[in-house]
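Predict the assembly for these two chains.
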Amino acid sequence: MRPHRLVIVLVLLAYAAIDHRGVGIWTDNRTLFTRASALAPQKSRPHMNLVKALFGSYRQAEGLHEYETVRRLEDAEGGQ
Amino acid sequence: MTLRQHAIVALGLLGVVVWAFWSLRWAGFVYEDTAWQALGESGRQTFSVMTPRWLFWRSWQWQQRTGQSALAFHLLSLGLHLTVAGLAGLLTRRLGYGAVAVWTAIAIVALHPLAREGAVYLSARAELIATIGLLLACVIGVGRWSGLQVLGVGVALALGVSGKETAAAAIVLIPLLRRNWMGVAIMMGVLLALVLPYAPIGVTGDTGPLTAEIAQRWALQQATAGARMLGMLVNPWPDRSSIDYDYGHVAIGLQLAVVLGWAMWAVVAWAARERYPELTIGMLGILVIVIPRVIVYTPRSWFNEHQMYGAVPWFALLVAAAVDKLERKGLTWIA
């Protein structure tokens, strides 16, 4: 196989591996917003969406805990 | 390549796509999908061809009437995504590239992680329809002009715009593919004239929850978001994709530097047009997709991955051009 073809195949397989893992994030709101909250820890909206997802999946205790984070972040955002 | 080789590559790629998107089997409706579901369930809402994005609405409503299966929704969106990949390959072929370059373009669009959100987020289906219309218009528009061709471009554009207004970018992309540089400059002006009324100038106070302060920095933050996704387009590893980024904490100096970076991108792309037109087509193709999103004000969200979906085929075209050059040079392991 020519070298550039091998590189293309390897890059495409890497894309596929990233997708294989990444598509799983989109299966439900809880998974989706857990990741979004982790990547934007100082922004209230993804945390608020996570709260909704947690309550939606009957995880009230976790939802309440997350809501405390939302309140703290909203206070900080309001004070900016 | 022989027919048998084409079949092997197609089957291999299909197998990899199925593996990559395997988790969709368990995927449900997420985030804003539920809003469309509620609208479909009401059954009262009807959409005429004059309704913005009517084809997107229609496809959603039609599918909801035929069943509530999330898997069916996902399969249709994935099918549309693969249609986009096929059209990118067809466009590559129309530009005169060889089989390896064509399959490279198809595979990049099908598998690129930046295209994933558009393919798996059901609410982003409008973007898929728009990109199908846009690429179809480009495929038809690159050949010799005739009455039938003009009609075909018009129908394809109408199809795309009925999915989402972003398909209007085809009016710049067609002269770009035809290497009609004066046409590119003129149609870019027309595109800007179309999108400028949607800029956040003087009308943002009552359009959504974003504050006036954010609206003032809209173009800067959108350009920053676009730059982040350009980085993901070129190198999607490690995977940092998310539905909701935090651009509010990006320093103003960095945002200004990003705008300067985009300006340099445009200058380099334009300067290369005579000597390396393939580079110009790829770079300006990406820019033409990005620019309207930097200007148009959407009160609820920043520029995000599914809105960058339309840029992936232009990146694929750029890589395909490079691959085609290498193929023609006949590079092997032994110099």
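The interface with chain A takes residues 16-17, 19-24, 26-28, 30-31, 100, 104, 107-108, 111-113, 116-117, 120-121, 236-237, 239-246, 248-249, 323, 326-327, 331-333 of chain B (CB under 8 Å). The two ends of chain B are 23 Å apart (CA to CA).
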